[in-house]
Specification:
This protein has helices spanning 6-10, 53-56, 85-96, 99-102, 104-129, 132-163, 170-196, 206-233; strands at 2-4, 21-24, 27-30, 41-42, 46-47, 70-75. By secondary structure, it is α+β, with helices and mostly antiparallel strands. It folds into two domains: 2-75, Roll (Flavocytochrome B2, Chain A, domain 1), CATH 3.10.120; 87-233. Strands 1-6-3-2 form a four-stranded mixed beta sheet. Helix 7 (170-196) packs antiparallel against helix 8. The protein is elongated, with a radius of gyration of 24 Å. The chain binds protoporphyrin IX containing FE (HEM) (2 copies). One protoporphyrin IX containing FE is lined by residues 102, 105-106, 109, 112-113, 149, 152-153, 156-157, 159-160, 163-164, 172, 175-176, 179, 182, 222, 225-226, 229-230, 232-233.
């Protein structure tokens, strides 16, 4: 049986007329003829040219589907050499606990997304209903939302370092800038609400209008960061 290195299969990604090879549990399969792997892409998520051993574990099917495609060889076992010892140590931990490789970022990001978008919605509702309790909920959403932004940033940088080898791309560079900007805008909104707005449910005060405007900008920022994140995980043309 032919032996392939990871570099051999990397070029067989199904793009620009190339064949589509995937590796699973040390075996290499040719999926070029499969209608489910057009141009090397499977379910808009998995790209040929890679070792998909970990990915297939989260598929709705088992390994039995591999009997429908052609087994063409085996994958050469390679000892990976990492540029830094920090990276090598982290990889060793992730080998033992693969959960931490991809899950922390998606698990954390929904907190700032939901809470910060909710804070502008609640604040506007509070003004419309002249409800101090709803306004308090908006304020708390803002505070907890801001606290969760650094967690999203830390896990974001982590997933970028581990899964993208810290390589920049237009989407990632924009995400990084917008994430820090969202944190700053969040802090500014908090300062305005805490120290400058006298009556947070009655329109008529310039500072309240500025506060609502800042919350809306914040909602837009986190929505844009989340949208860009989704484009990384679920790319589309
Ligand atoms: C969450 C991710 C995945 C989803 C949602 C998914 C979904 C599907 C579906 C719906 C089918 C068609 C099943 C049928 O015809 O009965 C299929 C087939 C298949 N899948 Fe996946 N899959 C995923 C991940 C993977 C991965 C990582 C591999 C790795 C090699 C893989 C390999 C295959 C193969 C070889 C087939 C058979 C293709 C054929 O019949 O031509 N899948 N998958
Ligand atoms: C407020 C801050 C952030 C939010 C709300 C956010 C949101 C998201 C969302 C919704 C996804 C898609 C998750 C999924 O369902 O798979 C995602 C993915 C991603 N984000 Fe972020 N993100 C933030 C900050 C960052 C930062 C600072 C980076 C650093 C570069 C980053 C890097 C990534 C990467 C690489 C992915 C791809 C998925 C992965 O490999 O885990 N994010 N982000």
């Amino acid at each position: 049986m032919k032996t392939f290195s990871s570099t051999d299969i990397k070029v067989c990604d199904g793009k620009d007329g190339a064949a589509s090879y995937v590796a699973v549990e040390g075996k290499v399969y040719d999926v070029s003829g499969s209608l489910k792997w057009k141009q090397g892409n499977h379910m808009r998520r998995h790209q040929a040219g890679n070792d998909l051993t970990a990915d297939i574990k989260s598929a709705p099917h088992g390994l039995d589907v591999l009997s429908r495609v052609t087994l063409i060889g085996q994958l050469k076992t390679e000892t990976k050499i990492y540029r830094s010892t920090a990276r090598a140590k982290t990889e060793a931990i992730l080998e033992k606990h693969p959960f931490f490789r991809r899950h922390p970022h998606p698990a954390v990001v929904h907190f700032p997304l939901a809470l910060l978008m909710m804070s502008s919605f609640l604040e506007i509702s509070a003004i419309l209903m002249a409800s101090a309790r709803t306004e308090w909920a908006a304020y708390l959403s803002l505070i907890v939302g801001i606290i969760t932004v650094p967690a999203a940033i830390v896990t974001g940088y982590f997933t970028w370092w581990i899964n993208y080898e810290a390589k920049g791309s237009p989407i990632i560079n924009t995400k990084k800038k917008l994430a820090w900007l969202a944190f700053i805008v969040g802090l500014v909104a908090f300062m305005i609400r805490t120290f400058a707005v006298a009556s947070p449910v009655e329109l008529g005060e310039t500072m309240l209008l500025i506060y609502v405007g800042t919350l809306l900008i914040l909602s837009g920022l986190v929505a844009a960061i989340g949208f860009l994140g989704g484009k990384l995980t679920f790319p589309y043309d």
